[in-house]
Design goal:
Two copies of one chain form a homodimer. Chain A has one domain: (Glycosyl)asparaginase (Glutamine Phosphoribosylpyrophosphate, subunit 1, domain 1, 4-Layer Sandwich). The first copy, chain A, is built from ten helices and 13 strands. The first copy, chain A, is an alpha+beta fold.
Chain lengths: ~300, ~300
């Protein structure tokens, strides 16, 4: 059985000049590290879900990605994170929105899946649950980097509410982090985690918290984690739709993902990563670049950022 | 052009004996009133969205339905409502979760759709937005009825967390309210509103707040509002899946809804109402009963509760 993993660190990129060489190199290193963490679990016979959570946790800790530490700031200067996970073997799912101070939001989503009868919790009550579960908490300031503070100020002075990729925080990595994996048993899983949109209205919930929009997994079809303009992804229920395209139209995961990203979504809005239960991977995006990486069994891992890589 | 409307007031029913004659009659009256409110708008050339909001508002105000006043109580004794709307003409959507004191939650979801760049807001921040928009607020106590207080006590003493339809508040109307409509211009819309599950963990978000799970609308396919065991409906992204079945498999709205409710969902978990842009209506459910009603243009309105009506 082939096992494989794919990860993304957001698709909000325009061109190398805007990103800057140093940030690009640091992001590539972090992607390689995340990929390695996930692959190690898979190669040892671990579960797709464990691999996804491990890869996402590395990116959540890395201040260069918009998730966990280094999340973008809402209009009120706070960090409010969204995350979700889904297990393709059982179609169990967990999700959280508006969570603060929890270091690993995707892991919290998994705990909601496993330890409550519910799929999704929000805000303060989700935090109370995280505390009951003894999850790792950090101070609110621990999450906030000078880079994100500056970015919020810039967005505020341009009076741009985040949705405009060109104006808001131009060329700066934003978006989401996510992972999808297929383990040695042919089970697939997906995890997505994000700080959302810079200068968003506090209380906004994005697609990363929505099962069927930002995250979906079903062994019969695929596991998928999306990144991009969350509102559009919710309205098109992108992740569930990808699964439906495979199941109902008989497309394979590569064809179906390509169709959604290049024929259905507006241009320059984002991308997704997906894997099926044969370990087949795809990572299409329609922006200037998407932080991404993948590894198939013990083949060489690949990290990429721009279109023609 | 035929216009039509369908409504539901929840599918959490077992049998007439459990519901009681008085509650059944009062519910039937309220359904007729809601149907009339929606139909009046449609017959005057109003929009499907306006008709849905008007019909839902009547049920939100009626203490017999689990939405607005008379919402079931969370484990901490509070009312926390979820709602969402979607417009099939534009595929714009709005959603809110964990909202308190706002009298008309579905109308709030519409305001989020129309007056913010976002699809979904949660909790206190959604409330702040509602206040900015001068929406009608009521005290927390205004929402709470003796019936729901008793129901929570019963659920607590039985230590049943809500998901078990048989044990939790046996035979008592629960669930959701919702409406779907097709207007004279062939535009469809859907609205869903609920207090969620009795004795739920505070902070739980159900399918009624999730675009693609409890609510979806697309003129190309249908408008749908679901009711039932929310966690299952999220995991199967029921509303989006219905739309996909019509689009991708070429089924009509009646066939597609029947397939989901009777061949895909577990038994005794709920139902849905749906309409396509020809005004074709369907209202399948797999529980003992679903409060429901429908009216096609100036034909006689129909109200029904049990299976064989």
């Amino acid at each position: 059985m082939t096992y494989s993993i794919a990860i993304h660190g957001g698709a909000g990129l325009t061109c190398p000049e805007d990103l800057g060489q140093e940030r690009e190199e640091l992001a590539r290193e972090a992607l390689a590290k995340a990929l390695n963490a996930g692959n190690k679990i898979l190669s040892a016979g671990g579960s797709a879900m464990d691999a996804c959570i491990a890869a996402v946790a590395i990116m959540e800790d890395d201040p260069r990605f918009n998730a966990g530490r280094g999340s973008v700031l809402a209009a009120d200067g706070t960090v409010r994170m969204d995350a979700s996970v889904m297990d393709g073997a059982t179609r169990e799912a967990g999700a959280v929105c508006g969570i603060s101070t929890v270091r690993y939001a995707a892991e919290l989503a998994r705990k909601i899946m496993k330890r409550t009868p519910h799929v999704m919790l929000y805000g303060e009550d989700a935090l109370a649950f995280a505390k009951d579960e003894n999850m790792i908490l950090e101070s609110e300031n621990w999450f906030i980097t000078p880079y994100r503070t500056e970015q919020l100020e810039e967005a505020k002075s341009a009076n741009c509410i985040i949705l405009d990729h060109e104006k808001a925080s131009k060329g700066r990595p934003k978006g989401t982090v996510g992972a999808v994996a297929c383990d040695q048993f042919g089970n697939v899983a997906a995890a997505t985690s994000t700080g959302g949109l810079c200068n968003k209205r506090p209380g906004r919930v994005g697609d990363s918290a929505i099962i069927g929009a930002g995250t979906y997994a079903d062994n019969k079809t695929c596991a998928v984690s999306a990144t991009g303009h969350g509102e559009l992804f919710i309205r098109s229920h992108v992740a569930g739709r990808l699964s439906d395209l495979i199941e109902m139209k008989g497309l394979d995961v590569v064809q179906a993902a390509k169709h959604i990203v290049f024929s259905e979504l507006d241009e320059d809005v984002g991308g997704l990563i997906a894997v099926d239960s044969n370990g087949q991977i795809t990572l299409p995006f329609n922006t200037g670049g998407m932080f991404r990486g993948w590894q198939i069994a013990n083949e060489k891992p690949v990290v990429a950022v721009w279109r023609n890589e």
